[in-house]
Amino acid sequence: MMKKIIAKREIDVNEEGYLIDFKQWDREVCECIADECDIVMTEKHWEVVEYLQDKHHKEEPLSIRGIKKSGVINIKEFYHLFPGGPLKKSTLIAGIPKPKSCI
Question: Among residues 30, 32, 37, 102, which one is catalytic?
């Protein structure tokens, strides 16, 4: 476990930067992580983040295929919103663990 200063707070993260304790996540932390990924949060980003968090809390596995079937966002838009590894970046920003389907 490592500690990282995010939104002027000390946050527990793993070696890949994923939050270890979701209780430390809030919108300010989210926006700081997104900023590090060169992403400016829009209403659609928030919608995706809330969808991912909901799935995670229900312990449902996350995958690109699942996103495609979600009806929340289409795949093209998902890649556009979170360029360079959409599921990896979106879960990082959402403060949930990296899905097993991500390398």
Answer: 102
Angle between helices 86-94 and 43-57 (to 10 degrees): 80
Cβ atoms of 20 and 31 within 8 Å: the answer is: no
Q: How many residues does the chain have?
A: 103
Q: Per-residue DSSP letters for 39-71?
A: ----HHHHHHHHHHHHHHHTTPPP-HHHHHHHS
* pLDDT over 80 at 102, yes or no: no
**102 a catalytic residue:** yes
pTM of the model: 0.94
